[in-house]
Amino acid sequence: MKPKKNPKKDLNKKSSLFFVFGLLLVLGLAFIALEWKSYEPKSIYEVSMNVAPSEIEEEPIEKFKVEQPKIKQVLPPEIKVEDNDVEIEETEILSTEADTETEILEVDDIEVDEPEEEVHVNWITIEEVPIFPGCENAKDKRACFNEMMQKHIQKNFRYPELAQEMGIQGRVSTQFEIKSDGSIGTIQKRGPHKVLEEEAIRILSKLPKMTPGQQRGTPVKVSFSIPINFVLQ
C-alpha cells in the first residue's frame, strides 16, 4: 500500500518560525491598543459655565471719582510782642572760695546734727505697752491688749476656701511692729502653707491705729508676736 504523506515534506519543520511571527504580531497589536490615544473635539464655549461665549453679558464697569482729601490749612499762632518794661531782679551768686577776708571758725563752734535712731523695744521689756483702742481706762493694759487682739482675730477670721478644699490646717506664727506713731509696721509670718500666711497678714493689716508704747517717756517702736491657728472642723 502506498503512503498518502510525502516523507520528504516535513510540516513541523517551520512551525517554530511561524509561532514566533504570530507571537510578535499579537504583541504588536496589544501594544498599539494600549498606547492608542483619543482626543475630544475642541469646544467653542466654556463647558463649566454651560453657555456660549457670545451669550455672556458683560457687566458695565462703574467708575468712581476719587476726591482728593481737603487739607486744612493751619495758620501759625499769632505772636504777640509785648514791651519788656518789667525790671528783673538778678540773683547774686556768692563765691564759696575762701579768701583773705573769710572768717575761720573754730571746731567748737561747729554743731553737727545727728539723726535720732528709732528705738525698738520688745513687748516684754517695754515700760508702757501700746494701748489698743478701747483699753484707755483699763487697769491692766497688757491683758486688755491681748483680749482685744483675740477679739479682732475672731471678728476678721476667714478660713480660705482653697485651704479647706486641700485640707490645709495648722498654726501661723506672726510678729508685727507697732510704730512710734501707733500705726502697724512690718508683718512677719511663718506657717505650713502660703495660703494661710496670706490670710494671717490680711487679718493683722486690719488692726486699728493704737497709742504707741513708751520707753522712758518717749514713744518707741514695739514688736508683738501672736500665733493664729487654722483648724478644720
From TrEMBL:
Q: Which Gene3D superfamilies is this protein grouped with? A: 3.30.1150.10
Which Pfam families did the record assign? Answer: TonB_C
In its UniProt record, a GO molecular function of this protein is:
energy transducer activity
Q: Which GO terms describe its biological process?
A: protein transport; transmembrane transport
Record flagged with keyword GTP-binding: no
Annotated coiled-coil segments of the chain: none
Compartments it resides in = Cell inner membrane
Segments traversing the membrane: none
Q: How does it sit in the membrane?
A: Single-pass membrane protein
Q: What Gene Ontology cellular component terms go with this record? A: plasma membrane protein complex
Query: Any idea which UniProt keywords this protein has?
Result: Cell inner membrane, Cell membrane, Membrane, Protein transport, Transmembrane, Transmembrane helix, Transport
Outline the extent of the TonB C-terminal domain: 144-233
Family according to the record = Belongs to the TonB family.
UniProt-listed PANTHER family: PROTEIN TONB, PROTEIN TONB-RELATED
Please identify the protein, giving its name as recorded.
Answer: Energy transducer TonB
- Which organism does this record belong to? Maribacter cobaltidurans
